[in-house]
Design brief:
Helix content is about 50%, strand content about 0%. The protein is mostly helical. The protein folds into 2 domains: about 90 residues, Cytochrome c-like domain (Cytochrome Bc1 Complex, Chain D, domain 2, Orthogonal Bundle); about 80 residues, Cytochrome c-like domain (Cytochrome Bc1 Complex, Chain D, domain 2), CATH 1.10.760.10.
């Protein structure tokens, strides 16, 4: 049976009793569910941990697909799988639209040294990142925005695609296998330092 919680009860339960494993409920409003997401992804769009992705301003189609994949098990994450267990397709769409409409936070990650940026651009050019993520790495539709994402999360994700521990995008796995492990750190640093010009991502 699905139970609708009031927002104060839901937040109290999350913060005190089950901070990482609480489910968000299909019966709850998108605002209530989004409040629970904020416990990890940040009240102002800045995540609590550097390996947690920014989702404010992320592309709607991409967010929807990730929620769907966490629910189906195509993307593995014990915390997220538990969080979305009570949600349905309509909830995924509502949450994706909610977070996509918010402004991407500028967490002011520093630009890497010139030699690191040069190395990153060489790798990016060789594996063709811009063919999907576009020239400013803002992505589109079901493709993720990379510009300004947390460097630690980007590195973690690229590594997971490369070693197969993230398997919900075979194309990305193939691309990451074409890069060497030492190449991924510079790419993550370079992409993290960027802020998209124009649109909701501009700061």
């Amino acid at each position: 049976m699905k139970v609708k919680h009031s927002l104060p009860i839901a937040i109290a339960t999350l913060a005190v009793a089950f901070p990482l494993t609480s489910r968000i409920a299909s019966a709850a409003s998108v605002e209530e569910n989004a409040q629970l997401c904020a416990s990890c992804h940040g009240e102002s769009g800045i995540p609590q941990e550097k390996t947690t992705p920014i989702i404010w301003g992320q592309n709607e189609g991409y967010l929807y697909l990730q929620l769907r994949d966490f629910k189906s098990g195509a993307r593995k994450n014990d915390i997220m799988s538990g969080v979305v267990a009570g949600l349905e397709k309509a909830d995924f769409k509502a949450l994706a639209a909610h977070f996509a409409a918010l402004k991407w936070p500028n967490i002011q990650q520093p630009s890497p040294p010139k030699d690191v940026s040069k190395a990153a651009l060489t790798v990016i050019g060789s594996i063709g990142c811009t063919s999907c993520h576009l020239d400013q790495y803002q992505g589109d539709g079901t493709t993720a925005r990379l510009a300004g994402q947390q460097a630690e999360y980007l590195l973690k994700t690229m590594t997971a695609f490369r070693d197969g521990s993230r398997a919900n995008n075979p194309g990305m796995s193939d691309l990451m296998k074409a890069a060497q492990p030492a190449d991924l750190g510079p790419v993550a640093q370079y992409l993290a330092s960027l802020q998209v010009i124009g649109g909701k991502g501009n700061q």
